[in-house]
Amino acid sequence: MLIHNRAILLLLVRLGLRCAEILALSMDDIDWQAGLIRVHIGKSHRERVLPLPQEAGTALADYIQIERPSGLGRAMFIGVNNPPSPIHTAPAITQMVKRNLVRAGIPLGRLSGAHMLRHTVASRLVNSGASFSEVADLLGHQRLQTTAIYAKLDLVTLARVSMPWIGGVR
Predict the structure, then answer these.
(1) pLDDT digits (tens, 9 = 90+) for 47-104
(2) Alpha carbon 120 to chain centroid distance?
(3) Which of 11, 66, 93, 141 has the fewest CB atoms within 10 Å of its CB?
(4) Strand-pair partners of 38
(5) CATH of the domain at 63
(6) Contact (CB, 8 A) for 100 and 9
């Protein structure tokens, strides 16, 4: 797998970034000292600053040091086309995600692109105990109702940790 694919996939699966947010990333959006990433655009058109997960930060650093061509401006992700230029379209990211899903043996469904990973992030966080408000902040949602669409509860796990019905089994 190309190093830039790994970096993009980790930003999708750890932070739930949208394709447009990844396309808008520049070299200046990473605060390496503080371990933060500045995310632009989003549907709300407001900037948010997120903690950069270690694994995603390492993948980004590897990409910049090993694979990213120099002298091509400040855009973070440069395509492998000839001549190299910044990646400009969301479908390019979605196709890369689909290729990697197939490579991993994961069947493609109706929602098997980059945006599906936002749902995965939301569900994983809520099922790990994060509040809807925390997930909304990460994903850049202004309304909790939007986050509820993304975050699916694991009812089996929820049943194991919930209190039994006080009336007993009937």
Answers:
(1) 889 999 999 999 999 999 999 988 888 999 988 777 778 888 888 888 888 888 888 8
(2) 9
(3) 66
(4) 49
(5) 1.10.443.10
(6) yes
